[in-house]
Amino acid sequence: MLASVTVPLTLLGLLEREPSHGYDLKRDYDAYFGRGKPLPFGQVYATLSRLARDGKVIGGDAEPGAGPDRKPYAITAQGSKEFDAWLTQPIDPEPHLQTVLFSKVVLALMLGRPAETYLDAQRAAHVQRMRELTEIKRTGVLMDALLADHGLFHLEADLRWIDVTSARLTALAEMVRDS
Amino acid sequence: MTSPNLLAPRALRFMIEARQIYFSFGNTSALAGATMSVAPGEILAVMGPSGSGKSTLLHCLAGIFTPDMGEVWFNGERLDTLPDGRRTELRRTAFGFVFQFGQLVPELTVADNIALPLLLNRVGRKAAYARANAWLPRLELDGLGQRRTGELSGGQAQRVALARALVSRPKVLFADEPTGSLDTLTGELVMDLLVCLAREEGTTVVLVTHDARVAAYADREVMVRDGKVINRAELEVEVTR
Question: Would you tell me which residues 26-45 of chain B have a C-beta closer than 8 angstroms to some C-beta of chain A?
Answer without folding.
Answer: 45
